Amino acid sequence: MSATAATPDQSSFLFGSNATFIAELYARYLEDPKSVDQSWNNFFSELNDDAREVLDELRGASWAPNTTSVIGEEPTPATKPNGSAAKSNGHANGAAVNGAAPAVSAPAAAIDQDKLRAATLDSLRALMLIRVYRVRGHLQATLDPLGMEKREQHPELDPKTYGFTEADWDRPIFINNVLGMETATLRQILEVLRKTYCGTIGVEFMHIQDPDQKAWIQERIEGGRNHTDFTVNGKKAILERLTAAENFERFLDKKYTGTKRFGLDGGEALMPAMEQVLKRGGQLGLREVVLGMAHRGRLNVLANFMGKPFKAIFSEFQGNSAHPEDVQGSGDVKYHLGTSSDRDFDGIPVHLSLSPNPSHLEAVDPVVVGRVRAKQIQRCGTLPPTDESRDEVLGILLHGDAAFAGQGLVAETLMMSELKGYRVGGTIHFIINNQIGFTTMPSYSRSGPYCTDVAKMIQAPIFHVNGDDPEAVVHVSRIAIEFRQKFKKDVVVDLFCYRRHGHNEGDEPAFTQPLMYKAIRAHATTREIYAKKLIAENVITPDESEKIVADFYKKLEDEFEVASHYKPNRADWLEGKWAGLEAASGDDRRGNTAVELDVLREVGKAISAEPSSIKINSKIARQLKAKAQAIESGEGIDWATGEALAFGTLCVEGTPVRLSGQDVGRGTFSQRHSVLVDQETEERFIPLNNIRQGQALYEVHDSPLSEAAVLGFEYGVSLAEPHELVIWEAQFGDFANGAQVIIDQFISSGESKWLRMSGLVMLLPHGYEGQGPEHSSARLERYLQMCGEDNWQILNCTTPANLFHALRRQVRRDFRKPLVIFEPKSLLRHKLAVSKLADFGPGTSFHRILSEPYELVADDQVKRVVLCSGKVYYDLLQERETRGIKDVAIVRLEQLYPFPRTSLTRELSRYKNADVVWCQEEPRNMGAWSFIDRRLEDCMVAAQIKGTRPLYAGRVEAASPATGMLKRHNREQAQLVDEALTVK
Known about the structure:
Elements: H1 8-14, H2 19-31, H3 38-45, H4 49-60, H5 106-109, H6 113-136, E1 172-174, E2 183-185, H7 186-197, E3 201-204, H8 211-222, H9 232-255, H10 270-283, E4 288-293, H11 298-305, H12 310-317, E5 339-345, E6 348-354, H13 364-380, H14 387-392, E7 393-400, H15 401-406, H16 408-416, E8 427-433, H17 442-445, E9 462-466, H18 470-487, E10 491-496, H19 514-521, H20 526-536, H21 542-562, H22 597-608, H23 618-633, H24 639-652, E11 657-661, E12 676-677, E13 684-685, E14 698-702, H25 708-720, E15 725-729, H26 740-747, H27 750-754, E16 761-765, H28 780-785, E17 793-795, H29 800-809, E18 819-823, E19 849-850, E20 864-868, H30 872-883, E21 888-893, E22 895-897, H31 901-908, E23 915-923, H32 929-943, E24 951-955, H33 966-981
Parallel strand pairs: 4-6, 4-7, 7-8, 8-10, 9-10, 11-14, 11-15, 15-16, 16-18, 17-18, 20-21, 20-23, 23-24
Antiparallel strand pairs: 1-2, 3-9, 5-6, 12-13, 17-22, 19-21
């Protein structure tokens, strides 16, 4: 395009004061294209989508003042034109500029339509260009500190794309105070845009659909408050944090050369960035932060952010334990450990806790978010957490770039961020973007341009920033915490940096990235670059810069000297909310789980009464009547009722209950119905929250279709709140396989590795009913294989009463252990799998072993004892009754771990002349057999019974957990039951 210049006043007249005229003309065109003159019809029809979007915005909120005219009235410009603008010789997009005036009243028709269309098109194209820089400017930002990333000019950021030519660069264009200018030349516009969106900060926010959030970020980025407004003291503080971060790593490298530490070297700007979150966050109400991160930079975070004593870290490098001598457990490597501390900024204290985590990258993400949720509830005492409590407690997650893009737990955790039962008011994500994953370059490790692309699924704002510009890093960190506190949404800071050493300090990275590491070796450190900048600005002198380094290095030497004599203080794992709890000890740990009968009936009445406020499903109404009858008679309490009685009695005693998982409100097998739904309005009613005034809350959340993230979240809740019964239920037990990392690395081993107790309950539907390999086995063998050091409890119950007591004892003992319950499926409605109300009342408790309940021959005449666990008991019982067998006893092992050695030995000693058979439904290489074989043999020897080796009755070894053919299943089931009952 070429055009003679119009003065700013002329441009204002031609477009600004006629904005409403154009907007309303466009609105008329959209309603009926034939209602406007053909020349305007052509003009509007030939605009591209971006120009149409600008016009749509114009229709909704005109750029012109409210006093602007409407069609049929003469526009009144703010400043009268000094002359008429010359006509343009051509326009992009083929838009028409000639033709008759549109069909409007005489005053508006008097406007020079050609000039108005030309000026309109100029402004539209300029605004389109501005908008595209907001969308795509980050693609031209200078983000890579090493300068190795080759970024080609994006065509949409080129003015030529919009029809501008060299002749147009210095011609004023009306942009109505966008970018803070009423009119500006193309040169001025591009200068501002490139400085704002293509510097060392690249921001992605135009994918956000919420107009307030988008406008806030736009104003924050364009509004003049940029990263050049730091005070002298602020700049010195940044330099001091960079100095601490860099020289801590150098000191470790010097003292422990080649030792793995996964240093922060290259990403030191993270430290002042995180401190800015605390400083600004404290001003905005922040009082507590829960952090989660993997290896890279962890020791630096522990020392320079969390305040862990340097001497403690040096002591661990010398091979000493991080735990006090009197604390048992395996411990863990130093770059997995967590800690807690208090920091003070401007007189505002903020409590920090860094969650320990394993080498399984990103596994800690949902755990942190769950802890945050629990802490927010503790602060406000209500559900859901209030905005105030969300202001006070924040989760910060530190990620690696390759892990953020590659690990599914990241997406799962993000996906939960706005769900009612899991939201925490936003998490701040820092990505330590080393631009490499171990030895894999980004082009091989992800499909998108950025590792952060997954965060767009929740419309989170993303700030990419060059790690060698620490002021820019601190600036976006301040924006991040302000955004989170205002909008309660996740936000991502993508810190582009590099990894000065290899994957660890003993690795040789030049094997696979010789060019990158050649550049790194020649590249000055972030601190060196920033110190030179401050010296050039006369903020500090060279001597002052050196003194900052020398002072910090002396501090490290002093700490190193005393490290060999350092002794950890007592463990802090039983303080705060955990005060009053103890480490588990002893064998028989029943707890006080019995409940008075009048309380049981009160709860029973509440859970079986048909609510008057909603219209329930007729089938459920029948179930409630049956439940009420069972409560009244005290007979036939089924599984779901036993569970509900456990939940309800805890709630009336003041202990909250939280249950989440896929479809847990109704229950996978339509057994629970703890949420009743109005059949006309879908209003929800929860009977367990309507027992009595002042009771604790029963939370029940149908979770998203995720196992790993949801289970991790619930584990996090249980870490922060020991006085709540926290339960996760798998839709089928088999599906817990998708959360195996959480189970292996946190739930089963967290107490031993990190001194972190948890009372989390996992409910895993398990049992062979011929439904195929993915709906039969919860993989009992996997959980049993991980048993050791009294780490958790594994149950396979057969009665509702035992379930009741098992659930209640989780929060009625003076210690906490994870509990894995293998739940039944067919037993949910089995006529024999019921309990009496008296079995829940005074004098009752959980039984790890259930003896033979029926009258048989004398104990010394029993020929066989069949030992089993779970649902197969009822198959054995029914077949024994059918055959009329009286000399085969069936003993149920309700708790498999901790293994009840003493009780089982005592039970077996009754049957001195019997052989012992272990019966299970699972194949021989699965289930409990491998776990129980030798333990059972020890008990038989101790009981001095006839046989010294247990026999096996069950399915043969198999690769798949179960057959998918019902006939084959029935044949196998009949065979194993026959083998168990037939005495040879």
